[in-house]
Specification:
The complex is a heterodimer.
Chain A: H1 5-29, H2 36-59, H3 63-80, H4 92-106, H5 108-131, H6 135-139, H7 149-158, H8 168-188, H9 195-217, H10 221-254, H11 262-295, H12 304-324
Helix pairs in contact in A: 1-2, 1-3, 2-3, 4-11, 4-12, 5-9, 5-10, 8-9, 8-10, 8-11, 9-10, 10-11, 10-12
Chain B: E1 5-9, E2 15-19, H1 23-49, H2 56-81, H3 87-92, E3 94-98, H4 106-114, H5 116-119, H6 126-134, H7 141-146, E4 148-152, H8 161-164, H9 176-185, H10 188-199, H11 206-223, H12 228-231, H13 236-248
Antiparallel strand pairs in B: 1-2, 3-4
Classes of the chains: A mainly alpha, B mainly alpha.
Chain lengths: 330, 255
């Protein structure tokens, strides 16, 4: 039996038009501005259009009506059946002090794994420098690190003029954007079941370990701490948190010990991954400022004890922030 | 080639499908978006460059940061504001949708845009392209992780049967019993096929048009046989038109 399409369209058209208008209003204003009566009416119209679609699909194969109703029902379905919380306005402060540290704590094991991989890289890089001094050229990414630590310290401590004068802001901006790109790469490589993220973390550790041992062997540990700690106290944890986000993504993909479906696992971790990346972005902005405006100045311009103290203060504050911030709220 | 479709069954038991966007349309949309990012970047640089009068360093810093924010934030911002659409997707009639047909969340938008990095590896979106071709739903890795799909947005056009079934005299209606039997015997698929053939008739090659309507008319004649005096001299296409009129309009409308 085929439905009387003309009569059906004539009878239903006013309701479809009403549903179209209601959806347009809802999509532009959001549900929070709609009254209960309007929302109930929307639900009625949605059910009516759904019933119409079922009739058309069963009793007629007229494609235009069907496509029209499918489009209408799909839009209404998305609005009515969505149950996930959607913030009505941006709340950056709450995001920074509640959502981000909360997400960090929920995935502390992934962070521990990121630290472990980086430490393994540090050990490898340090051992490579101790065992083979020529490995330095291969392990260190920047030409500036290839020179002897003693020569560099002598040169930098001997320069009293401000070598970054007139370029501090642009250098800072470069560092912020470059480091955030590296952090995004670290997260995105989680899609390789974590292999890419692990390689990036390990390589980061290798460089760090190689530089640390190179300067320590030359007796320049104090210079190294004074140079690295002010920005590294935030930048290194930020990279580790980006690695944490990548590993969280990877663990959802692999799903060890989790019997829920892959789709559900990914759906569950997405908000936390987004929060971790947002937090990393904020940390990178801070690290970029510090690296350009503070880290590049050494004794006698700035005493190392001050720079090291500042770095230690930052790392303590960051640890306290990640461990405690927003705990009451969550 | 059949268009891949996303099938969603609602809790009310209603099944609806949405056409998935193909790789070519998505590639073109992406090119338009790249052009937009480039255009916005150039404009912003020009505006911020004028700050160089005060400080070249600060102007350079703002340009670096703004280009980064535009290139990363363009997709996130537009998809959030326009419910899954960027400029390119709007032009090409595409929209990002949750895989279950639900509304997009901010974290889904962020994830699918940030994971472009891995999709773009090793060059020219090779990983993303291969993933799209391998996926039943045409998802790149970013879509897969974010549980999103890209669908084609069809214009909402209410069907106009009057244009097709001009309210003319239909001689088959002279036999209401046979007309009722015809309505009973014609399946929805057969009726839909005849209707589609009529809708597309002007696009058919003349010979193909004659042959197609002859086959369809013969099929309908085999279902219900109308008296010869009613069908005599009636062209096959007119016969199909009359059958469709009976099938889709139960009662005769006044001319």
């Amino acid at each position: 039996m085929i439905i009387d399409l003309e009569r059906f369209i004539e009878a239903e058209r006013p309701h479809w038009r009403e549903l179209e208008a209601a959806l347009k209003q809802l999509e532009s204003e959001g549900a929070s501005r709609q009254g209960l009566r309007e929302l109930l009416r929307l639900h009625d119209l949605y059910q009516r259009a759904s019933a119409g679609l079922a009739r058309v699909a069963t009793f007629s194969s007229e494609p235009e009506v069907r496509l029209y109703l499918e489009s209408l029902v799909s839009r209404a379905y998305g609005e009515i059946h969505e149950t996930r919380v959607r913030p009505h306005r941006l709340a950056p402060w709450s995001f920074l002090v509640v959502t981000f540290p909360g997400a960090f704590r929920r995935h502390a094991r992934a962070f521990a794994l990121a630290v472990l991989i980086t430490c393994a890289g540090c050990v490898f890089g340090g051992a490579a420098i101790v065992l083979d001094a020529e490995a330095k050229d291969a392990l260190m990414p920047f030409a500036g690190l290839h020179e002897s630590p003693n020569e560099r310290v002598r040169r930098e401590e001997g320069t009293l003029s401000d070598r970054l004068q007139g370029s501090k802001s642009s250098f800072s901006a470069y560092l912020m954007t470059h480091n955030t790109r590296v952090a995004i790469a670290c997260l995105a490589l989680g899609m390789t079941w974590g292999i890419g993220t692990s390689i990036l973390l390990f390589y980061n550790g290798v460089t760090l370990g190689a530089v640390a041992i190179d300067y320590a062997e030359a007796g320049q540990a104090k210079f190294l701490l004074g140079w690295l700690l002010p920005h590294g106290a935030v930048e290194i944890p930020a990279i580790l948190i980006a690695g944490q986000a990548g590993l969280v993504l990877a663990s959802a993909l692999i799903g060890w010990g989790d019997r829920t479906s892959l789709k559900l696992r990914l759906r569950a971790i997405l908000p936390d991954v987004g929060a971790l990346v947002g937090g990393v972005g904020a940390l990178m902005v801070w690290a970029g400022f510090v690296e350009a405006f503070l880290s590049q100045y050494h004794e006698p311009v700035l005493p190392y004890s001050l720079k090291i103290g500042f770095g230690l203060l930052e790392v303590s504050f960051l640890a306290l922030f990640l461990a405690k911030s927003g705990k009451r709220t969550t | 080639m059949r268009t891949a479709r996303l099938r969603i069954r609602t809790p009310e038991g209603i099944l609806f499908t949405l056409p998935l966007a193909g790789p070519v349309a998505r590639f073109l949309a992406f090119q338009i978006d790249l052009a937009c990012v480039w255009g916005i970047g150039i404009t912003t640089s020009t505006v911020l460059g004028s700050m160089g009068i005060l400080s070249r360093d600060v102007a350079a810093a703002f340009i670096t940061v703004s280009y980064f924010v535009i290139s990363v934030g363009y997709g996130i911002g537009t998809e959030w504001l326009w419910r899954g659409q960027t400029v390119g997707k709007r032009v090409l009639g595409l929209r990002v949708l949750d895989e279950q047909g639900l509304r997009l969340t901010f974290s889904q938008i962020v994830a699918r845009n940030l994971l472009r990095f891995v999709d773009s590896l090793p060059a020219f979106y090779m990983v993303g392209g291969v993933a799209m071709l391998a996926s039943r739903r045409g998802q790149r890795l970013g879509d897969f992780a974010a549980n999103t799909v890209v669908v084609r947005v069809l214009p909402l056009r209410q069907p106009d049967l009057d244009q097709l079934l001009a309210k003319k005299y239909n001689s088959l209606r002279e036999h209401p019993v046979l007309a009722a039997r015809l309505r009973q015997r014609v399946t929805p698929d057969e009726a839909g096929l005849a209707l589609r053939a009529l809708l597309r008739r002007d696009r058919l090659d003349p010979q193909a048009r004659i042959e197609l309507f002859r086959d369809i008319a013969d099929h309908f004649r085999s279902l219900v046989e109308f008296p010869g005096e009613v069908t005599e001299g009636m062209a096959d296409e007119q016969y199909v038109r009359n059958v469709v009129d009976i099938v889709f309009r139960a009662a005769a409308s006044p001319p």
